[in-house]
Amino acid sequence: MATTDTAVSLSNVRKTYRVGEPVHALDGVSLEIPRGSYTAIMGPSGSGKSTLMNLVGCLDTPSEGDVFIDDRNVGSLSGRERTRLRGTQVGFVFQTFNLMPRLTALENVALPQLFQGADRVERRERARALLERVGLADREDHRPNELSGGQRQRVALARALVNDPAIVLADEPSGNLDTETEAEVLDLFGEFHEAGTTMVVVTHERHVAERAERIVHLLDGKIERIEELDGVTDELDSGANR
Hints:
Elements: E1 6-19, E2 21-34, E3 38-42, H1 49-56, E4 64-69, E5 72-73, H2 79-89, E6 90-94, H3 105-110, H4 120-133, H5 149-161, E7 167-171, H6 179-194, E8 199-202, H7 206-209, E9 214-219, E10 222-228, E11 233-235
Parallel strand pairs: 3-8, 3-9, 6-7, 7-8
Antiparallel strand pairs: 1-2, 1-4, 4-5, 9-10, 10-11
């Protein structure tokens, strides 16, 4: 079970998909993500990165094992309860931004607060404060098609943070950005992490992963190793996550 110092805890998690023969996307993964930490998830295609992201983000439930988000067992929740947990305790930043095209930047950032029951004035004040923090105070009335890729990703980051979630989960967040803009967005990730936000970045780019405190390497549905970026690496044998 997760503790007050743990944002996410996975215990002997397996996820099996059945398309003809069963496919073990995750095979006995155990992992704790400390509150306030910065973790990168890396691995080749088919290693289980997307499945792990979906479980941590309450988009799916494990076939076996337990996933705790902020002390709540995801597998024991109803679909409606998972939706509410996802809306209040998980912030998402996607490679393709996933902004609502007809809403302004301010409205996009304010939208997740509907899960919190905040009134319109509170939602707009909180959204406006976060847009200011990501350097977009002068773009609050612009719609996504009026913003650059980097600006859209900043809006997506502000939206992810608006409910003060237990964890912010970023899936290839710099994949559609040029080098300079990527660095600016990753700098923002670092700033919010230093302020206490729990960050998890799923990436195939080594230089993006190296912004984190540790890198969890996945291979064939298992944790191959956990690389602490202070130089200490936890090498796991083939049965370590079973």
